[in-house]
Specification:
- The structure holds 2 protein chains of 2 kinds.
- Chain A has one domain (4-86): ACP-like (Non-ribosomal Peptide Synthetase Peptidyl Carrier Protein, Chain A), CATH 1.10.1200.10.
- Helix content of chain A is 60%, strand content 0%.
- Chain A has helices spanning 4-20, 40-54, 65-68, 71-86.
- In chain A, helix 1 packs antiparallel against helix 2 and helix 1 (4-20) crosses helix 4 (71-86).
- By secondary structure, chain B is an alpha+beta fold.
- Chain B folds into 3 domains: 23-135, Butyryl-Coa Dehydrogenase, subunit A, domain 1; 141-243, Butyryl-CoA Dehydrogenase, subunit A, domain 2; 247-398, Butyryl-CoA Dehydrogenase, subunit A, domain 3, CATH 1.20.140.
- Chain B is 51% helix and 14% strand.
- Chain B contains 11 helices and 10 strands.
- Chain B has helices spanning 28-44, 49-55, 60-68, 87-100, 102-121, 124-135, 246-283, 295-323, 329-355, 365-376, 383-401; strands at 141-144, 160-164, 167-177, 185-192, 195-202, 208-212, 225-235, 239-240, 285-286, 289-290.
- In chain B, strand 4 and strand 5 (195-202) form a beta hairpin.
- In chain B, helix 4 (87-100) runs antiparallel to helix 8 and helix 7 runs antiparallel to helix 10 (365-376).
- Classes of the chains: A mainly alpha, B alpha+beta.
- The A-B interface holds A 16, 18-24, 40-41, 43-49, 51-52, 59-60, 63-65 and B 120-123, 240-242, 244-245, 247-249, 251-253, 256, 324-331, 389, 393, 395-401, 403.
């Protein structure tokens, strides 16, 4: 079940990606890496955007493709990091 | 000549600028540090840069002086032994040093590339082990990415690591590695199977051979070398980041800081061309006129001065974006490096032209600027690579905004 927070995170990241990459639409489970949507420059830009927007820090332990491969994955990652920080 | 609006550097020089009307964009500590940096360069760098260029090396005491001044760890947090300076201040340091010696600034560039990668992607243990000696300048780091067969096409890395027990074995070669002649540790990029990896390799590792590269056109004192790895043992603890992320997340952080450094260094070189040209134009007489009275010389100086202003704004914008941790810092830095490196090449050519025959001799710094400037267009991504990336960014953004 989507919570309000999840929706806000997901739509915020979706807007950033769609304003940066020339794709018509981005579904929640579209694979950002396998589809070639994300190049190395955009990978670090996206990471920086997530860090800045959601006040989290992506570190070595977070370098896992499962954390960034899709909108759903990124949203879950942000929620997990925030939960860890707040908990 | 009208007022020169120079945002960064704060002023061209007391003798060449009538206005510093946009200095307010720098904080007082930033202005004060920039003055300190310029004084350091005037005293310790400019008088000796020609000699270093001729001898193709920077003497150890100069590196020690940089370290003692805190310059080699300027951007690192104080708890690791750094100065904790913001990126604008780091840029100002590079600008000031770039006026004096591009080769010496190269030390700052690679030190920042290695240090900032470790700060971002190192484990707690790796940071505690490596960052303090890097911050204090007791150790110089070099960024070993480029290979004989992998320059702009960095995905083609052939350097390989293979697992063996509790460590890895490294084989391959690296080419055009700045400051490799003086570095104590290398951040080496290679592949583990098909996964890109990054690892730290100390200089004294058995099986590592450092082969100096002499007789470069520019950056002659930057200590470039080839690295040859033959069955070099790399402890697992020296892997930086996780396998698979070295080219997508680790290298881009280093290259980003390398571009900030190079953009600002090229800006300093551009300022050098401008100041040298103004001084010559004011002093050199042809009949009853000065060189500066000639319209065609004024045209050259006008282009230089305008590029200096534009480059200052781009560099400041990029550094501020990085200080604010904004994603657009990456494209702003690409733009700054793209602009200032090309502007430096044009300015150096014009500065030699204004000086005439004297500008072609080593006794004038503009001859060195001319050779060094061209290197700026190649390191940390060529001009053409920058155009390719920036062009794609702009097209993508236009597509995104159009929906």
């Amino acid at each position: 079940m989507n919570t309000d927070v999840e929706v806000v995170i997901k739509e915020t990241v979706r807007r950033f990606i769609l304003s940066s990459i020339a794709i018509a639409k981005l579904d929640d489970d579209d694979d950002l890496f396998e589809s070639g949507i994300v190049n190395s420059l955009f990978a670090v830009q996206l990471m920086t955007y997530i860090e800045k927007t959601f006040a989290i820090e992506v570190g070595m332990d977070d370098l896992d493709i499962e954390n960034f491969k899709s909108l759903n994955a990124t949203t879950a990652f942000v929620l997990k990091k925030n939960g860890r920080r707040n908990g | 000549m009208g007022d020169l609006l120079t945002v960064w550097p704060a002023e061209v020089s007391a003798s060449t600028s009538r206005s510093a009307s946009m200095r307010h964009v720098l904080t007082d500590p930033q202005k004060a540090r920039h003055e300190d940096f310029k004084a350091f360069v005037a005293l310790n760098v400019e008088p000796f840069a020609r000699q270093w260029d001729r001898e193709q090396r920077i003497p150890d005491p100069v590196i020690s002086l940089m370290a003692k001044s805190g310059y080699l760890g300027g951007g690192l947090p104080p708890h690791f032994g750094g100065q904790g300076w913001d990126i604008v201040t780091f840029g100002l340091l590079n600008e000031a040093l770039g006026r004096g010696s591009s080769a010496l600034t190269g030390v700052l560039t690679v030190q920042a590339m290695v240090s900032m990668v470790l700060l971002k992607w190192g484990t707690k243990e790796q940071k505690e082990k490596w960052l303090p000696p890097l911050a204090r300048g007791e150790m110089i780091g070099a960024f070993a990415l480029t290979e004989p067969g992998a320059g702009s096409d960095i995905q083609s890395l052939a350097t390989g690591l293979t697992p063996e027990g509790d460590h890895f074995v490294l084989n391959g070669s690296k080419q055009w590695i700045s400051c490799a002649q003086i570095a104590a540790v290398f951040l080496v990029f290679g592949k583990l199977g098909r996964s890109p990896v990054a690892c730290l390799v100390p200089r004294d590792s058995p099986g590592l051979r450092v082969e100096p590269i002499d007789d470069l056109m520019g950056f002659r004192a930057a200590g470039l070398a080839q690295l040859h790895f033959q069955d070099v043992e790399v402890p697992s603890a020296n892997l930086i980041g996780k396998p698979g992320f070295a080219l997508s997340h680790v290298a881009p952080v280093g290259l980003h800081y390398g571009r900030i450094s190079t953009a600002c260094s090229a800006l300093g070189l551009l300022r050098g061309c401008f100041e040298e040209s103004l001084a010559h134009a004011a002093m050199r007489r042809i009949g009853d006129k000065t060189v500066g009275d000639m319209g065609m010389i004024r045209s050259l100086i006008a282009r230089m001065g305008t590029d200096l202003e534009a480059g200052s704004l781009l560099c400041h914008s990029a550094c501020r974006a990085e200080d604010d941790h904004l994603p657009e810092a990456f494209e702003k830095t690409l733009m700054a490096k793209y602009f200032t490196s090309r502007a430096a090449v044009k300015a150096a050519s014009a500065a030699v032209q204004i000086r005439g025959a004297a500008g072609c001799h080593g006794s004038s710094p503009v001859s060195r600027y001319y050779r060094d400037a061209k290197i700026m267009e190649i390191i940390e991504g060529t001009t053409q690579v920058h155009e390719d990336i920036l062009g794609k960014i702009f097209v993508d953004q236009a597509g995104g905004l159009g929906r």
